[in-house]
Amino acid sequence: MRLTIAQLAKRLEAELVPILSGSAPDKTGSSQISAVGPVETADESEVTFVSDGKHKASLEVSRAGAVIVAERLDGLDKPQLIVKNVNAALIEALNIFAPKLQAVTAGIDPTAKLAQDVKIAEGVSVGAGVVIEDGVEIGQDSVIVSGCKIGENSKLGKNCRLDSNVVIYHNCRLGNNVVIQANSTIGSTGFGYSFIDGSHRLIPHNGGVVIEDFVEIGANCCIDRAKFGNTIIGAGTKIDNLVQIAHNVEIGKCCLIVAQAGISGSCKLGDGVVLGGQVGLKDNIEIGDGAMVGAQSGLSHSIAAGQQFMGSPAIEKRESFRIFGLMKRLPKMTKLLKQLIKRVEKLEAAEDDKE
User: Fold this and answer.
1) DSSP states of 264-304 as a string?
2) Which residues are bridge partners to 303 per DSSP?
3) Which end of the chain is more exposed for a tag (fewer CB within 10 A), N or C?
4) For this structure, is 247 an active site residue?
């Protein structure tokens, strides 16, 4: 798709601030835009963006055809699209210029295998090689892409999307507008064993998984079913790729779980919790609303609402920064310590000679 800058401004509900073209202002915004690009690499056919004035220097050397900003930047030699929220405008621009893929059509591919007791609502698309077992219900306008499998008695709400090779085990519940990217698995048996008579025996996991509305789950994630009750993912939560969520975990609303995080069994996360990449949580701990755990942290205890922890083992953020600062000084401190030891040894030897 190609739009003039003026057309793009209208689509974004932005105020267009033109630039001088030759000796007269270009008030028409007639130059065309066909994509969105970063400040450093965008060319004349692309629109870029900045969220604050800190990047003005980069903009001055950028070749971008236009820039989305929150307020007018003086002295800039390119058209500015002034918006209330740069991130919201960026999302809209990316949607406008997204690749135009073949539209999904409702219907069931002839290679799909559906059990007799399956309820499929209007507008649902079922792709090639999909397997759907007895008792499954799929809500209106949902899309089940090729290679997926949905186990017995699981239910999907309206407007869900399962990308290729997603597996939903039996007795799982997905709300409306749930997105699960390729190769993720929902409802696998949890990792729970008892050592009995010289061997590890698997503890049955008879519960399920509940994924509430507007949850998005990345590729290659695993969410285990509960031993009893349900593993729960709260509404609006977003989960990155390669995340492991164990049995009986309860995650609140609008949480962010970044790639390679691992959440052990029976942990409880409040609303708005953020876990950075590769965070590991010990089992049976609670994280309060709005708390944040920094990347690569190992958290072994509960933390209260709003707290920020980092490190392994994880400690409060400010204390962690102080420790990291001291660690950088350790080589110099070690050198000084060795010098002091030598001086003390000389002083002690001199005292011994006096005796």
Assistant:
1) -TT-EE-TT-EE-TT-EE-TT-EE-TT-EE-TT-EE-S-B-
2) 287
3) C
4) yes
User: Of 55, 170, 205, 247, which residue is the catalytic one?
Assistant: 247
Task: Indicate the residue among 64, 96, 128 that finishes a domain.
Answer: 96
Are 265 and 149 in a shared domain?
yes
Q: What contacts 274, CB < 8 A, 6 or more positions away?
A: 255, 256, 258, 291, 292, 293
d(CA 213, CA 232): 11
Domains: count for the chain: 2
pLDDT tens-digit series, residues 227-269: 999 999 999 999 999 999 999 999 999 999 999 999 999 999 9
The whole-model pTM stands at 0.86
| β-pair partners for 168 | 150, 186
- Cα 19 to Cα 16: distance, rounded to the nearest angstrom: 10
Which domain, by its residues, includes 176? 107-316
